[in-house]
């Protein structure tokens, strides 16, 4: 009977540890990896504001980075079939 309890304990602990690892990696992928991406953070906010003003309504924006030209574009999606692509914008080093 003790072996069975120990097995259940190990199973439950592995499940809890796996769940914690999953949330940890989800947090890293949402935060840490985005900060390494050149189009993350302020660029996403910039694209949202540019797309909203270009479409004249609140919009969803998806920034895409072009490594060859060192610039990015904003794909804008509004309500219905409203879509626009604006850019290119260049990344300026922060002073």
Provide keyphrases for this structure.
alpha+beta, three-stranded antiparallel β-sheet, 95 residues, 3 helices
Descriptive account of the structure:
It is built from 3 helices and 3 strands; from the N terminus they run H-H-H-E-E-E. Helix content is 51%, strand content 23%. The chain is α+β, with helices and mostly antiparallel strands and 95 residues long. The chain is elongated and about 70 Å long. Strand 1 and strand 2 form a beta hairpin. The protein has 2 domains: 36 residues; 57 residues, no CATH class. It has a 3-stranded antiparallel beta sheet.
Summed up, what is this model?
The protein has 95 residues and is of the alpha+beta class. It is 51% helix and 23% strand.
